[in-house]
Amino acid sequence: MAHSAMSRRSFLNLAAGTGAGVALAACGSSGPGQGEGGSEATYWYLTGAPGEQIRTNTVNRFNKANSDSQIKPTAFENDAYKTKIRTAIGAGQAPTIIWGWGGGGLKSWVDAGQVDDLTDWFAQNPAVKDRLFPSSFGAATVNGKIYAMPCETVEPIVLFYDKRAFDKIKAEPPQSWGEIMSLVPRFNAAGIAPFSLAGQSRWTNMMWLEFLFDRIGGPEVFQAVFDGEKGAWSNPASLDALTKIQDLIKANGFVKGFSSVVADANADQALLYTGKAAMMVHGTWTYGSMAEEGGNFVSGGNLGFMNFPPVEGGKGDPSDTVGNPGQYLAISSKASAEQKETAKKFFSTAVLDDTEIGEWLDTGGVPIVKGSESKIASSKAPEFLTFVNETASKAKVFAQSWDQALSPTAAEKLLDNIAKLFQLSITPQQYVDNMNQVIGQ
């Protein structure tokens, strides 16, 4: 995979992915930022299993091996963390190491001069960069420069399907948009909803548009929106994608009452594993809960999975994907020289070391590290994790979810208009007009 393909990228990742995929625990204790002095580096990150323990274990191993370079970690519950880190960065009191999702949040820190440019450091440490998925650097990149260390796991959005449902109507999984549309009446006739969708959650609807925009027009279509180009939503590929999704809705492609189904309760997953829906477009983080809650649906070999198929005549590369290309660690520009050096040593020696890689794999995650195939082969879910690893590592472009790529203001407008589009209360052209008004905000 060429690094040049990713140097063009400057957007990516979905808070909902981490938030929905991890059952978060109570708030962690508050910790000191840089403003309180001290030579030890500080590091804030999220609570919740399994991530919190893995992050803490990595810090503990680093501290044990580096008596002269210590890191003090503090964990926060998801929503509390977002508020705490925003306030701390605004006050110049950020921790040395800032955990985040990349994309729009990272860009806001860069624009405010609150995080260090790591481009030269990565150039001087090619072994650090070369072991990570090239696609993971898109969300770490702002204006062509790298401002964060990609870390942890990759979570693409994929098309899940129930093999039993396809056996029932004697059909094969769809290999194109046309095949998706031709399957809809067949599943409906068999009393099975073609697709499960938790439409009330809004971001679940967004995943469909992310793929349709990409498959029809390529990654450049949303990149133009992210770059703030005037009228970027007016691209013909946008109107084509928006029209196609409403065609699917009008054809009863989604489960009846989908706009009242909520993702947080895993109700959309339940529709798939109980046989009420044939397919579901969702993040790979749902695999674990389907395996745990779905009886023998997963263990019995009934769950199928594939990348989203191409759209006839589309410009997009069908090997590309969207979702969570990784998580990200930035370094506060307000940290001392000693603290920054400790952070970089942590990045190069501890983040995604062999022990951490094994811990992520044991919990069903795919680390963003090349060459994990042998470890994946001996994992608890080798077929699925191999699929996730190949989808992520072979993607020339791994696009971050739109609501994380955009500013909070634009993201809220985006989700509101997507909900209206799926409820058929606005037309594709009205969506375009509404969203063009908030470009660059």
From TrEMBL:
Signal sequence span is: 1-25
Q: Does the keyword Signal apply?
A: yes
Q: Carries keyword Signal?
A: yes
Annotated Pfam families: SBP_bac_1 (PF01547)
Q: Which residues form a coiled coil?
A: none
Sorted keywords for this record are:
Signal
- Kindly give the SUPFAM superfamilies that the UniProt entry links to this protein: Periplasmic binding protein-like II
Matching InterPro entries: Bact_solute-bd_prot1, SBP, TAT_signal
Q: Give the top-rank taxon of the lineage listed in the UniProt record for this protein.
A: Bacteria
Q: Could you identify this protein by its name?
A: Sugar ABC transporter substrate-binding protein
This chain's source organism reads Phytohabitans aurantiacus
